[in-house]
Amino acid sequence: MAFDYLKRKVAEHAFNAMDNKADFLKKAGIVAILTTVICQTTAVLLNKDVPQKEKKFMFAQEVADGTINLAIFWVLTAACIKYGRNLAAGWTKDIQNDKVFEKVQDALKKEKGFGRYNIHKVKNGYVDGLGTIISLIGSVVASNFISPPIRNYAASLYQKEHMEQTFNKQPNSQNSIFDKQVPNNVFTQQKPLSQYNNMSVFLNQSKYTGNNPLRPF
Amino acid sequence: MRHFFQPFLLIQFEKRRELQESLSLMQIKALKNSFENVLLEKKAIFEEDVKKRIFVEKRIERVVRFNKNVETWHQRLFLGVAAISSQPFYDYFNRNVDQDTRKYSAARTVAKIIVGTSEGCLVRFLAVRYGKKIAFNCLNNKNDVVVEKLKEFLEKRSKEFKEKFELGGENAQEYKSSAIKFNRYKDKLNDWIDEVREHVKNGGNFNNFTFESDKTKDLEQYLKESGNVLSVGAAFLAGLMIDIPMTNKVLNWGMDIFFPGHCQKNIGGSK
Questions:
Q1: Residue among A31, A39, A33 at smallest CA distance from A13
Q2: Complex ipTM above 0.85?
């Protein structure tokens, strides 16, 4: 029974895709983005190597990323489909000259790979096709050129807010969130050189305190 | 009768003679040339029209063919290639965050894209190929309930588009063509089932089925779209099973190679 229902649904969607390919590809793109969001958020939650605080931040970040991506993709792709269809309809409106039709068909038949379609019959196919192509270009532009800067800006705002809440102070632009987890007393206290057992720790001092390691005193 | 027209013919003959006498030989030649030039110009315009139309029809044919042949894995590939050539750069040169975060962010994005695109394309490609066969076999196992419900659906869609067309508006022509299409699919469904059943009864299978007859012309497209629909579902399931573990593994591997000495617990980073 469930299998019959599945078969019917697949067939229904296939017929819808035959009628409007651009719309189907838009839906497929939305499913792909949703899949990515679900997978990435689950990956963050299941990753044992990420600390709890970071997990919270990264989860929110992935959700924000997916939401922004999805919204831009949806809006831009829908607009592109409409634009492409209108463009094709406008272009094909001028081609009503039947005087040259037979001559053109004869010429196309001589060329390899052409002349399969009759322009008067495939006009709707052309309108659909241009809608598909422009929507594909629109989806690429949306998810790769418009969404990343917005996503990054939103994520950086969230990161600053998150860090303020976590560390109760403004983040240092030079040091990362992970550097803050290093105990302060190791590097900020000025100690005599003889007290350091590990030289590598001493050499890393400059990274965290901004002091010159050659002049520790 | 002849006698009746004779005076008129004579007058005409006289007129022509007068005209010929009045025109010099040079003038006649010039007139002839100008007529020829007009004819040549007309011919050139016609040929140019033909050339333009050939160009336009070639473009149309390419677009129609692309629309029919494009599959979901093509779309995933376009998105993946564009993503890997743009997104890591946005992350790596993001000035709103610190240097370490940028590195982790870019590495994580690369890992996500590589895993997502390769897995997505492969799964979709295989799903489309096998989806066609599954849809073909579904047509062979004739289930009257499913077929009847499918016909009801096609009729309902046709009616919906017809109502929309009657309401008018800028998309009225598209609605009209959709209504016609769904009506045609309803009629063709029985033909497809009959053709497939007969083919299988004669010992044939999907691989040696031909889609050239009028009855089965749209069947190829239907099977392709069925494969595309199945591929979307398959990609969703495969994403859940493969993306989650693979992204972290590829990220760890990439971080070890490109940023050696990083702390293990820092994996995942932040953008």
A1: A31
A2: no
